[in-house]
């Protein structure tokens, strides 16, 4: 097989996100619950025989050499070479097309998910032979959320987001609102007013709350984002009329769990004109999990 098209790179929601400390290297320690949803970017891959990694389309605001997709492909290429240093087979590369649907700076993990899909699919197309944990290790070099998407299932996460434990989350529907602003992650994590000392919770604490309609914990990044980007606060207030609304990740998208698909449709139909909104279904695992080994 030399081509795979329309490969999904699904979004995630952070059902809660606690900042529990800051390491000497500047990374923040976290506890969070990652929920996969069915809104996705789509990527097309075609194997090349000349070793070139080529993103074949423009992605506004993301130069190809800085794109996590390109960087992921090159990392995997290097790792595959190290596994077979004496190989005389021709160098493999890839043409990659990225169909962006997820907003950048929305806290949905779009860039990280794109990178994970690249690792998963090219590992398969190139017959590189890396197992899931090895791909997760490569992903961590690209960003703290990438290992989760390679992990391939909903998870309770700790550390900088790389210590993952399976979390059997509820099925159901969400409404996600994009209030028209893009938030750089660094702007939130570097803010002086960000609290970094939330008390550690046990996974059992979160597991016991899964059956409840109420969201567990909080998002420690939300107050900072609301202060710096007022549309986030406005979206939370609007969506709050339908239930408990929360920001995902470092923003700017906000979400609310809905009791039924019809309720989700109703909320989406009433979203203010200047915003975008969609209903999303909870996923139990990554759509490409069948390609993973180990």
Find the structural class using helix and strand composition.
alpha+beta
How would you spell out the order of helices and strands? EEEHEHHHEEEHHHHEEHE
How many structural domains does the protein architecture include?
Answer: 1
Estimate the strand proportion. Answer: 25-35%
Under CATH, the topology is which?
A: Ribosomal Protein S5, domain 2
* Sheet having the most strands: 6 strands, mixed
Q: What low-confidence regions span 5 or more consecutive residues with pLDDT below 50?
A: none
Distance between the termini: 21 Å
Overall average pLDDT? 94
> CATH class, anyone?
Alpha Beta
Helix content: 25-40%
Rg on CA atoms, Å: 19 Å
CATH architecture title? 2-Layer Sandwich
Number of continuous helical runs: 9
Question: What is the global morphology?
Answer: globular
The strand count comes to 10
Give a description of the structure.
This protein has 294 residues and is α+β, with helices and mostly antiparallel strands. The protein has one domain (1-294): Ribosomal Protein S5, domain 2. Helices cover 28% and strands 27% of the residues. The chain has nine helices and ten strands. It has helices at residues 68-83, 110-125, 132-140, 146-151, 185-189, 203-207, 222-228, 230-239, 261-269; strands spanning 3-22, 28-48, 53-55, 93-99, 155-158, 163-166, 173-178, 245-247, 254-258, 276-281. Strands 1, 2, 3, 4, 5 and 6 form a six-stranded mixed β-sheet that branches. A four-stranded antiparallel β-sheet has the order 8-9-7-10, with helices on one face. Helix 1 runs parallel beside helix 2 and helix 7 (222-228) packs across helix 8 (230-239). It is globular, with a radius of gyration of 19 Å. The chain starts with a strand and ends in a 13-residue tail after the last strand. The mean pLDDT is 94.
């Amino acid at each position: 097989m030399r081509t795979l098209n329309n490969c999904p790179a699904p979004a995630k929601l952070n059902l809660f996100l606690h900042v529990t400390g800051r390491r000497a290297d500047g990374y923040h320690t976290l506890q969070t619950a990652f929920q996969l949803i069915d809104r996705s970017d789509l990527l097309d891959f075609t194997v090349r025989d000349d070793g070139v990694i080529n993103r074949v389309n423009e992605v506004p605001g993301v130069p190809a050499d800085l794109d996590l997709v390109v960087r992921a492909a090159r990392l995997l290429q290097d790792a595959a070479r190290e596994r077979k240093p004496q190989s005389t087979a021709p160098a493999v590369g890839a043409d990659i097309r990225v169909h962006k649907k997820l907003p950048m700076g929305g806290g949905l993990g779009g860039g990280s998910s794109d990178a994970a899909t690249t690792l998963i699919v090219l590992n398969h197309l190139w017959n590189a032979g890396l197992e899931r944990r090895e791909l997760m290790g490569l992903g961590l070099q690209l960003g703290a959320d990438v290992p989760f998407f390679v992990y391939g299932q909903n998870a309770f996460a700790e550390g900088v987001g790389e210590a993952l434990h399976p979390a059997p989350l509820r099925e159901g529907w969400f409404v996600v609102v994009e209030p028209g602003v893009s938030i750089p992650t660094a702007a939130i994590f570097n803010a002086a007013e960000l609290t970094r000392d939330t008390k550690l919770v046990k996974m059992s604490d979160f597991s016991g709350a899964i059956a409840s309609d109420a969201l567990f914990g909080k998002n420690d990044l939300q107050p900072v984002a609301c202060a710096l980007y007022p549309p986030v606060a406005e979206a939370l207030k609007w969506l709050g009329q339908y239930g408990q609304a929360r920001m995902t990740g470092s923003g700017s998208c906000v979400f609310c769990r809905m009791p039924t698909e019809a309720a989700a449709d109703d909320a989406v139909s009433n979203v203010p004109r200047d915003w975008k909104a969609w209903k999303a279904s909870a996923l139990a695992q990554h759509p490409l999990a069948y390609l993973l080994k180990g």
